[in-house]
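Need tokens for this chain, all 453 residues.
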Amino acid sequence: MRSRDEGARRSGAASLTWEPIVFAVIVFVLTAFGLLMIYSASSIMALTSETTGHDPAYYLKRQLFYIVVGAAVALFVAHFDYHTWSEKFCIPICVAVVAMLLVVFGPAGQGAYGATRWIPAGPVNLQPSEFAKGSVILSAASVAQRYFEDDHDLSGLGIRLALMVGFPLLLILLEPDKGTTCIIGLTVAIMLFLGGMPVRHVATVGAIALAFVLFLAFKDDYSRARIVTMLDPWQDPYGDGYQVIQGLYAFGSGGLFGRGIGNSRQKYSYLPMAHNDFIYAVIGEELGLVGTLMVLALFALLVWIGFRIARSAPDLSGRLIASGCMTLLAIQLSLNACGVLCMAPLSGKPVPFISYGGSSVISTLILMGLVLSVARTSKATGSRGFTVYEGTSQGLRVIEGGMGSPADIRASRGSEGPRGRVSLNSNGTRRIDLGPSASDRLRGRDTSRGGRG
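Here are the structure tokens for all 453 residues:
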């Protein structure tokens, strides 16, 4: 007789036959939609600019090149077991990213909009902080796996987090890039919480980090102006509030169903960064409220499937890698959408898959490759690891592994009451029969014990 836990375990493994496929299809759809919107939002600007050779498809062609590179790297990442990246190459990847972040502060670093975040690499500019996202997620997952399931050394956890997570975040903050720092920092905090860190510890560290970020935000004139603009952009409609107001005009003129693809008016030099930070506003103008909600629905479906893949991972490291990638994606999308809608300070962070940007789309596709690597490994290992069954008069009962944690299984054991049969002897005394002796159990092992599944 097969137990319900065994059936649930097998159905969980079977679900991974469609989840990675649907996950990859949604990524493809969002990326292709991004190409369409980049061409629509940038064609007028590219057509009137000498630097682009008056080519209306200039940004479309460059983004397509970045997508091809990112997809190739993502497929390479997905081809290997995620343990290869989180255990064997985690430290080399972290060192390489830190080295890139340090190069930004040298003569090779390139600045724009009051920050130095890029490294010229031939015809493209690399943004190391984008590649730090995957590196930090791998590092945090590796450190959490070691702490929660191996040594439980709290001081060692703090040291490793400081070196492999805190130091890269400090370099990103010094660029300065507060938006990326907040996105990655919040992602790591959620990963630690999902890994088993007590809420009070996560909340304490989070409160300290938030206070520090707020101090920097109000200390810096540029960041403080963004907060004031969020509260009332019409205080300075032709200065700090101009971009936000033009974005709101785009949403307002789009109505319910929009003006149609390619018919945006705000992209005619009214809305700055229309193909990048404010592409969501162009979507609102051309596709209306329905279009913007459909984009959010696709992202929500992608995140939901990503968390299902995380739940099916065979160990804590895999669960944290997949959930960390999807958490970062959701946070970045929310930050951009809320900023464009004047519900949060502008962060300058692009919409994943859709906004123009080489480093952004490559790093995002790499994160999706990590999630697919977790899905591929989970499917290969049967998704749930091994399960130990014990024979009972009612059939097979799970005593280890399977669905649920060991703590859940121990709790279920405790709720069953005494194991064994209660009977009365000839004197009327209650007696608990614990079963056959050790020698009888050994002789009858083939028929009285279950196996490992």
